[in-house]
Design brief:
Elements: H1 6-15, H2 18-37, H3 42-63
Length: about 70
């Protein structure tokens, strides 16, 4: 059994949580769907920005755990 530092255990628990995984997969799918349909209008750029912001927020949430 490998022991991790306490800070890393908190991060791994967050990454493996159902809520975090679900939100991260959903934001990734949203980003991929924007590219699959093509970026043609301002609305497409806004969709991409929203999905990317959601992804960045999920990732930032890992690093804010102490």
């Amino acid at each position: 059994m490998v022991l991790m530092p306490v800070a890393n255990r908190g991060k791994m628990e967050k990454i493996m949580s159902f809520g975090w995984l679900g939100q991260t997969v959903a934001s990734l799918c949203w980003i991929l769907s924007v590219f699959s349909y093509g970026i043609e209008t301002t609305g497409d750029w806004l969709q991409l920005f929203a999905a990317s912001s959601w992804m960045v927020s999920n990732i930032a949430g890992i690093f804010s755990i102490e």
